[in-house]
Structure formats: C-alpha cells, structure tokens
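Q: Fold this one first, please.
A: Sequence and structure below.
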Amino acid sequence: MKHLVLLGAGRAHLQVLQSLVALSLPGVHVTLVTPLPRLVFSELLSSFVAGHQPPVNCSISLAPLLDASGTTWLLRSAVTLEVQSRCLSLDDGSSLTYDVLSIDLPAMLDRQMVEQAMPGAREHALFVRPAETFFTLWPQVVTLAQKRPLRMTVIGGGRPDVELALAVVYRLPDSSVTLLTGDESAGCGYPPALQKHVMQALKQHRITVIQERCTGIADGEVTLASGARLACDVPIIATRADAPTWLRASGLALDDQGFITVDGFQRVISHREVFAAGSVSRRADMTHLASGTDTSFDVGPALAKNLRSVLAGIDPTESMYKDKFLDFLSLGEKRVIANWGNWTAQGYLVWWLKERRDREVLKKYSKYGQSGPAELAGRRAP
C-alpha cells in the first residue's frame, strides 16, 4: 500500500481532504501531520481583533473532515526531512516514510531571529504568529485597555500589518496606535490606487506611521534604529514571516529566503515525489510574487488532482495561478477596500461581500460537524 503524507493543515490540504471525502484513493493510506486540532484562517485576524468575529468563527475543527476522509491524524510537528530515504522525523522521536509527500505549512516568525534583531521581544512583545496563541492572548489586551488607555505599537509594514493596526485602533478607540514599517513605507507593494486609500485610512484613524526599524523592546518602550525611544505598553510583532528553519537542511530546492521552490504542478523542482503549496512555497515561474505569497485557494483543487494522478502513475496537470484576483483590505470598522488589479472600491457593501465570502469558506469546511480538540488522539499511522 502506498503512503501519502500531508504535512501541515493549510487551506490547500483542506481541499485535498475534501477531495478524499468525495472520492477515496484505493490502495493509498493517507496521514496528516499537524500539531494543532484547528485551522485558524489568517485572513480573519483583523475581523477578530476589531471585534467583528469571535474566535470560534475564525477557525474550523479538523477532526470531522479527517474522520469523513478516512485520514490518519498525527498531532505532531516535523523536525527534519531526509529526502533520500523519504523519511520525515517528528518531534516525539518517531518517523514516517512516504511514497508521496505534500507540504502545506504556515509561514512563521522565527523567534530566535526576532530576538536577535529586537532584544527583549520574547519577554515583552505579543507575537501575531502562531495565530492560535495570539487569539488566546488578545482578549487580555482588550481587558487591560478597558481599565486604561494603552500605547500600542504594531511592528511591521506589510498588508496584514496595516489591517492589524486599523483593527486595533477600531477596537481600542481610547488607545494610541503606532505603526513601525521598518525600511519600507506603509503598504509598499500595493497598486498605486490602493496605496493611496491605505495612507488615507491610516491618517483618518490617527495612526502614527514611522518608517524606522525597531532595534529593541523593553518594559514600557521600544527602541528605534535612530536611537529614539517610543513609549509603548503593548508591542505587537507582525513582521514578515519565514519558512520553517528545518527546511534548510532538507535537501529540497529553496529560494534565497528559504521557501520551497515548486513548478507549475506544485511539485518541488528538485524532487518529483514532493509537492508544496500555500505560504511555504513559491513557484519558480512566478518570481514577481513575494516569497510566502499564499496561493493555496487557487492551487488547492489542482494539488488534490495532481496528488491523485502521481499516486496512480499518471502525469500531473499544471495549476493555473491568476495574476489578478479580487482581494480585500479591512479598514477596522465595517468598511473594506476591494482591489482587482488597479481597480478599487470601498464601503459597507464591500465589507458585507467580504464577510459573506468568509462565511461561505467556513461553512464549506465545517459542514462535517463540530467536535472537540482531541477527538482523534491516539490514532497512529502504520
């Protein structure tokens, strides 16, 4: 019997599991390796911070889908990959061999590297990733802000960080919010029309934008590269995420930032039996995309089809990525900017459309029922 190992429970792998519910893989045993019982949808983070959505509406339980698809679940994390022997080592000392491996892991913040760049971050800062931890800690910040106004600093200038800063100032209107964007301007990389709306929104909500790097964090303040000190009660680390560090020794083809390089079939260009999708991967033919760009909504169905094909000895099919797609940028309050290429629109109606799309996504994956966090504990792969 062949063994398909799905490493990580990203959205592309959710679509693979859904395909297994509809049509099983004869002669193939499927194992999912992930340390968490739920998948948190990162695009709902700003809605949660702003108070529009409770935590339960921002994630789904994996257990019902795993049960329905007949997939074995290992509640573990990977620590090493030996591609020559096709062996994946897990954090409990066990190992898995595979015939085909698919990787759909979230990008993450390397806390050791963050601490080196910003001494004191581990002790004094709130990290956005992993999202599961942030979702647990954020209500404590809200409770504290109800007692006294807080001085908040969001460290990071990318698209999610702008959304986060706007969500924070909406949820905590009596607190002050500063956005530290590092070496780049806020919203850098947006189309010009969208960047204009972003800057207007930040100014309208009185968010202070400082284009400087944070070089240290202490109790009650953050230090800037210029040497200036900024008063801060709650620093939030939301800088660019990295690929898992253990990938560097795996032997897989990686780009210069450590993300897995895949071809048009989502297959790792150095190993035909390994596939990758989501924020941990980057297509070699799409270097114009930023490393870590999560395209899993587009490639999920193609990944499911190609995994099925290679396991059956059939040539895979190239997955098509859209250069233009409808994107949303939340403004904190119930207003959202919609973006399609250089076209933008905003307002309550756009927010309603985004909320409807998000509800449909959650409904799609949670239709297998509700369950607690340890339903499949004890299940083991052969």
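Q: Good. Now the second chain.
A: Here it is, same layout.
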Amino acid sequence: MIAGRPWWHPARHADRRAALLARNRVRDRLRRWFAEQGFVEVDLPALQRTPSLETHLHAFRTERHGTDGGLIDRLYLHTSPELACKKLLAAGETRLVAFAHAYRDREVGPLHAAEFLLLEWYRADAPYTVLMEDCAELLRLAADAVGTDRLAHRGITVDPALPPERLTLTEAFARYAGIDLLATLDEAGQGEREALAAALRGRGLRVAADDSWSDLFSRALVELVEPRLGRGRATILHEYPAPEAALARRKPDDPRLALRFELYACGVELANGFDELTDADEQRRRAEAAMAEKERLYGERYPIDEEFLAALALMPQASGVALGLDRLAMLAVGADRLDAVQWMPDEPGAR
C-alpha cells in the first residue's frame, strides 16, 4: 500500500486506473487476434486432481465433500491449464487458446503473484518455431494496444517492432556466463553436477553441497544470463538442456537438448513454450522422477494424472506456450511491478 492506503481507496484507485484500463486493452487485442487466426477459446476449470508435473511449482490444495460431509476428493488449484489443454488436443481441437487464472504458492515478489492471468495457446501439427513467431506478434500487438512504441521495465526498453534475437541456451551460457553448457551434460542428457559446479565456482557463484545440477543451472541462468536478455529487442532462448524441459520433446539429433523456448523482454521472462512430448511412457518416467525430487526437496508430491497420460496416445504432435499476460501488460505501460496492472493486487488483508 502507498501512504497507508489500500488498493480500493478512491484516491489510489484513481492513480492506478489508467494502467488497469491499458491492461484490458492488451487482453482484448490479443483475444481478437487469436479469434482472427482461427483459434477456439476454451474455458477450463481451475480445480484439478493433478495441478502440475513439475518439481518446483507449488499448488494450493483444497477438498471436495459430499452432501453428507464425507470427503470425495483432494483437489488443487491448477498452476497452469496445460494438462487440460492437452486433453482437448487429444479430443480433436487443433488450435486452442485459454485466458486462464493460474495459482501458485511460494511465489511472492514484484514479478510474482499467488494468482495471475496466464495466456496459453496450442497449435497441432506445428513446430515450436511457429509459436516463436506468435510471441513476436503479440509483443507488437500489446504495444499497439496501449499506443506505445516501447516496452519498458526499470530503465530497460525493447522495441517490439524488431524481431526477437534467437539464442540457444548453449550460445547464451557461452556469451554471458563463459560456461560450456554441453560439457556439463552426458550423452544421455543427464547433468554432470561436478562439471557445472566447477564452472560456477570459476565465475564466483556460490555452490552448496546439496545443490543438484538443476539448482546450479538455475543459479547461473538467473544471475549471469537472464539480466542480459531482452535489451533493445526481445530474446528467445531455445534448445534447453533435457533435464530442464519436463514436458518437451527431445531434439531429434541431440538428445542432450529439448525443444523448449522462453521469451524475454526488458530482462523479464514472459513466455515458456514446448514442442510437446507425446510419448506416454517417457512422460510417466519424467513425471515420477519430478515427483520424487519434489518429495525429497519439499516433502510433498502430486498424484500422476493417469487421464492425461492416456490422452497422450491420441494427442497429435503439437506445440504450446504459456505467456504471463499481467507481465506483458506491465511492460506495455512501463510499470515496475506486476501489481500495477492487477485490478485487485495481492496485498495481505486488503481483500
């Protein structure tokens, strides 16, 4: 709160209203574009039995009871609509889009909120490079919706009219961290912890005894690479190490890598996309490994979505991407914080 005033105080709301209306214009313009491209907008339930298959995403849990008060289900608010969207691909949809509220626990800060608006879309029978082109178009549309020629965040700007620079993770780590990323992966795509630990120590980064390869990868990415991305023009990072792409297909000619990409603008991660994995047996192995790691780190695990695994047998090859609409609106209006473009920001006690 500013000067002790909650978001619903008339004076503070008056200060925030222009940014909130701009957010609406961004959302409406993107929704119109998807309709023009022949996408079907789907409305998906937030309550799921399986909220996520990823180690570090944390869901809110609740319960459903019968009329007699007896417990029927333990349910979760989804962390994204991804699993539900893929079931609809299996059902026969070929271009679908969802403007879905997503819910994530343990995520607090200027660029995070417990509840936020996620824009997620899928194209059947299309490579993920087509979604990279979609992302570039959405940057231009968002800027146009608010009447600006710059996306901005904390003094860093991006010209949305410029095509994003495309960098592989290998190229980005070499350029910005001085690390040979492929040298820290074995032939099967598993991380070689000690090789990456030595590289991080050489750059003066902290290495703890219980850090996994993934922990070290994330530290190098966050501290050495991400701050350098999306300056002047957007950046698309692609070809992630296989251990960092739980739901993506491996690169056919190099199994150490997977067909995942992320979009950055003004140093902010905006979108995360995959060339989707459709091998149910491989997906089960990855999910079980991720849940075992979640239990080791956090003392909890989520049930495997058997319906989702069964649907993979019918799902066509497809690509999908999730984009944080609140973050995109934040950059379009040049705000410093996510809550500047949220109608009811997450302020303890204010709701």
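Q: Anything worth noting on the second one?
A: The radius of gyration is 20 Å.
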